[in-house]
Protein: Transcriptional regulator, AsnC family
Amino acid sequence: MQYMTTIDKINADILHTLSRDGRISNLQLADQVGLSPSACLRRVQELERSGVIKGYRARLDPAQTGRAYVVYVAVGLSEHTKAAQMGFEAAMQGADQVTECHNVAGAFEYMLRVEVANLPAYKAFHTDILGTVPHVRAITSYMVMGSPKDTRA
Structure:
């Protein structure tokens, strides 16, 4: 059973610190947020247990993992049915190139974050995967030229 955890100033400080460095030791974390190590550990465990902290991730170097070419893709569907949405979402679950898939409000139905090695790899994804999904009406690609701020873990 999940329940609401209070996000007071100390919990907010813990979350901020962990979001920047998920491998920080409990001793260092406790020192940074002004708690004893045991009190800090109890708070972190409570944040994990309640689902506020969903997990920890490694930040990878996109250039070294063959995913340095990032494209945001706006996708419009030809039908606005539950079946069309479910079919599209299932297809995106199976596409390793898609690292994020968001159902959005506005001029199109979905915004994707696609990470591939280069332009030819994106063209192959665009043509062979995205272009073959039923009900895809419009695809607008936005190639990322730089990321002066990126706080994703």
User: Anything to note?
Assistant: Residues 37-49 form the longest helix (13 residues). The mean pLDDT is 94. Residues 1-59 form a domain with the Arc Repressor Mutant, subunit A fold (CATH 1.10.10.10).
